[in-house]
């Protein structure tokens, strides 16, 4: 298989109706050790032949098993490990293959006389001067993709891209580089979707995640020491999603209870105390030893945001403080104790779809909201990208 998100993969997965059914089946056929073989080889640097030659079913089961494990840690070194290893597996196959039809990209072949001779002459003078016929063949524009799809994936300059009648024309290497971007985005999109389903996944995937985490720590030991993991740390307000920033600025009376008590309380508490919870039924006392973090770092921010509302929430509804503690899992009280954690549910941040439905005024997406299903994963992604950037700067 050339692309786990491509045409062949979609044909195979049709049999299961949805990804949940497929993930339920995988543990019956694929041992955890076999799933981990897809990443274990990375420290040696060479993809084993038996992985490259795996049949389609074994290949797609191994890949999606790892995606199921990533549902418990959507942004972290585990994601980095899975992405890096599988990119190399599929790129090795793609580079040996002459046909791009199976890829998830909507690539079309270019007909012989499609590009005007005058344009070809200009392109050859600019790109192909003083190179061998073999290299000319490698740089030949044999594929095209609709410009809209190309622009959605391309992050580089357009100076070396031939564009005509709504299409970008590409050589073989350009197609492969574009596919890499497509693979990374599809991977992130899939993991974000599975993050919302992790409580429904068989225990197999949590066990696989724990084993995957061990391998990631070994592979990226130096990077982890330099940047740290995406775990509990002081809040980074600059990395918050737009809906949270809007709530922090204060909202009108009709939005106050939802924005402050429901959204802000759940987001700030998880982001500060347990940004990457293994499940949605975790309790605060499972994560901290006393209430000082809540009382000194989280509650003051919530109260300040409530005071910015019009009219101020807690002046208008003083008992709403008890509701805050209720949403943190301590029951309806103004004098919580750590041992009371679990008396009520520690509410998880609502999904983006629920925010749009219940408080559309809070949902003002920016470019980083694409494929994100929950405000917490937005924050995790930003933390992950920043730590990754710091790690690359350190390497330089």
Task: Give a quick precis of the structure.
This protein has 19 helices and four strands. With 396 residues, the protein is mostly helical.
Keywords:
396 residues, mainly alpha, Transcription Elongation Factor S-II, Chain A, 3 domains, four-stranded antiparallel β-sheet
Explain what you see.
This protein is mainly alpha-helical. It is 56% helix and 3% strand. It is built from 19 helices and four strands. The protein has helices at 7-13, 19-29, 32-40, 49-52, 56-70, 77-96, 117-127, 133-139, 147-153, 172-195, 203-219, 221-227, 242-248, 256-273, 292-307, 313-316, 320-327, 352-358, 375-395, and strands at 108-109, 143-146, 162-164, 167-170. It has a four-stranded antiparallel beta sheet with strand order 1-2-4-3. The longest helix has 24 residues, at 172-195. The protein starts with 6 loop residues before the first helix and ends with a helix. The mean pLDDT is 89.
- The helix fraction, in percent, is 55-70%
Biggest sheet: strands side by side, in what order? Answer: 1-2-4-3
Q: What percent of residues are in strands?
A: under 5%
**Rg over C-alpha atoms, rounded to the nearest angstrom:** 25 Å
Please give the largest β-sheet: 4 strands, antiparallel
Distance between the termini: 35 Å
Counting DSSP E segments of at least 2 residues, the number of strands comes to: 4
One letter per element, helices H and strands E, the order comes to HHHHHHEHHEHEEHHHHHHHHHH
Query: If helices are DSSP runs of H or I spanning 4 or more residues, what is the number of helices?
Result: 19
């Amino acid at each position: 298989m050339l692309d786990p998100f491509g045409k062949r993969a979609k044909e195979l997965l049709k049999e299961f109706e949805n990804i949940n059914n497929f993930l339920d089946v995988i543990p019956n056929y694929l041992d955890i050790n076999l799933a981990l073989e897809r990443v274990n080889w990375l420290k040696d640097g060479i993809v084993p032949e038996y992985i490259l030659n795996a049949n389609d079913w074994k290949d797609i089961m191994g890949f999606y098993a790892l995606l199921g494990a990533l549902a418990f840690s959507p942004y972290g070194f585990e994601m980095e490990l899975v992405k890096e290893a599988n990119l190399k597996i599929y790129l090795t196959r793609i580079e040996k293959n002459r046909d791009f039809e199976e890829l998830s990209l909507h690539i079309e072949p270019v007909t012989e006389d499609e590009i005007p001779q005058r344009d070809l002459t200009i392109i050859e003078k600019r790109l192909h001067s003083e190179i061998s016929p073999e290299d000319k063949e490698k740089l030949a524009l044999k594929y095209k993709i609709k410009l809209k799809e190309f622009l959605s994936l391309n992050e580089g300059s357009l100076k070396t891209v031939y564009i005509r009648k709504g299409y970008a024309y590409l050589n073989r290497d350009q197609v492969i580089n574009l596919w890499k971007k497509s693979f990374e985005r599809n991977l992130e999109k899939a993991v974000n979707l599975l993050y919302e389903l992790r409580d429904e996944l068989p225990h197999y995937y949590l066990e696989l995640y724990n084993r995957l985490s061990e391998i990631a720590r070994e592979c990226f030991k130096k990077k982890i020491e330099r940047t740290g993991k995406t775990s509990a740390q002081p809040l980074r307000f600059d990395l918050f999603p737009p809906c949270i920033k809007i709530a922090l600025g204060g909202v009108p009376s009709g939005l106050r209870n939802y924005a402050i008590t429901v959204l802000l309380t759940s987001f700030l508490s998880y982001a500060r105390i347990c940004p990457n919870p293994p499940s949605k039924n975790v309790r605060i006392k499972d994560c901290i030893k006393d209430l000082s973090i809540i009382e000194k770092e989280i509650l003051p921010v919530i109260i300040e945001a409530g005071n910015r509302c019009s009219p101020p929430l807690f002046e208008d509804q003083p008992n709403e403080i008890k509701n805050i503690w209720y949403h943190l899992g301590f029951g309806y009280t103004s004098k919580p104790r750590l041992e009371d954690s679990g008396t009520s549910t520690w509410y998880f941040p609502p999904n983006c779809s629920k925010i749009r439905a219940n408080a559309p005024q809070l949902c003002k997406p920016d470019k980083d909201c694409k494929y994100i299903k929950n405000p917490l994963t937005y924050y995790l992604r930003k933390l992950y990208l920043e730590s990754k950037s710091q790690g690359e700067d350190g390497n330089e």
